[in-house]
Amino acid sequence: MPANRKTITHFMIEEQRRTQGTGDFSMLLGDIITSCKVISDQVNHGALVGALGSAGSENIQGETQKKLDILSNEIFLRFNEIGGHLAGMASEEMDDPYALPEGAPRGKYLLLFDPLDGSSNIDVNVSVGTIFSILKCPEGVTHPEVEDFLQPGTTQVCAGYALYGPSTMFVLTSGNGVNGFTLDQNIGEFILTHPGMKVPEDTREFAINASNQRFWEEPIKRYVDECMAGTDGPRGENFNMRWIASMVAEIHRILTRGGIFMYPIDERIRAQGGKLRLMYEANPMGMIIEQAGGVASTGYERIMDINPTGLHQRVPVIMGSKNEVELLVSYHKK
Ligand code: P6P
């Protein structure tokens, strides 16, 4: 590795100095990074270590759990419960908040995560990821209840994801912009390769599961129809479409070259409030997108302003290039 390359460890030390941190946050982030490296190793070895396939169980979302969903959740719990930086954890894969073992040292942060998002892609070898969000635990709380986790996205102190793709990347923000790191498999360290990531304000690329078209609300139908009409339509431009069914991969593409990601409310999922989860998908990705100059909305309100009512609450998600998201939001106002 060239001597001038910055490791994520050096990056965190510089951030700690800049914020006069105590080191507690840096060490928590270190445990999260280690968790993602271990998950990356399991994902990369897939069938070779018997990690593929279903676990034969369902999570609170009623979704079939893959073996790697459960393994990734276990990895996050084991590597983050002993550091003494957390008061509690919450996961897509667990109905209730995780109570740290009695006697385990407790800290001032709460960690929420989707340990393996997009896991339906695992068995077909398509990119998947981990999403995490860090909140401050309310003062004086050592055994947090659900209510202690239910803080709006604007209170997040850090948000990030790991993307297990052709390369393993780690992208995070702690409120001072977005930075991307690539795992150097030879030395097992994340290297700063994408400093200061910015979402281009304009795009001609949209991401939505078009098979749900008949269920969409009018503003979404109008927006997508206009994109599909291309140069013959009101936009006067041709658009491209992508759908990977892995939110981490979609958001990473948007951070890299722009785009708009939509998982809107529709008649099929109206009763449950949407598809994607607020606390450990929409909020962390919303913080990353906003810190990179993009916009993250439900179509009706800013995602990070939502006052949560449940740990696994679902919300509509529209996020990405500022000008496109704002155009679609304007359609929701008409
Ligand atoms: P659909 C993966 O299950 C996920 O939560 C997101 O990562 C992804 O964007 C979406 O759901 C895919 O949903 O309905 O297209 O399978």
Structure, described:
With 334 residues, the chain is an alpha+beta fold. Helix 5 packs across helix 8 (322-333). Strand 1 (54-58) and strand 2 form a beta hairpin. The protein has 2 domains: 8-194, Fructose-1,6-Bisphosphatase, subunit A, domain 1 (Fructose-1,6-Bisphosphatase, Chain A, domain 1, 2-Layer Sandwich), CATH 3.30.540.10; 205-333, 3-Layer(aba) Sandwich (D-Maltodextrin-Binding Protein, domain 2), CATH 3.40.190.80. It has helices spanning 8-18, 24-45, 67-80, 146-149, 218-229, 247-257, 278-291, 322-333, and strands at 54-58, 64-66, 86-91, 109-117, 128-136, 158-164, 168-173, 179-184, 189-194, 205-207, 240-242, 260-263, 276-277, 295-297, 314-315, 317-320. Helix content is 30%, strand content 23%. The mean pLDDT is 95. It has a 7-stranded mixed β-sheet, with helices on both faces. A 5-stranded mixed β-sheet has the order 11-10-12-16-14, with helices on both faces. Strands 1-2 form a two-stranded antiparallel ribbon. It is globular. It has 8 helices and 16 strands. 6-O-phosphono-alpha-D-fructofuranose binds next to loops.
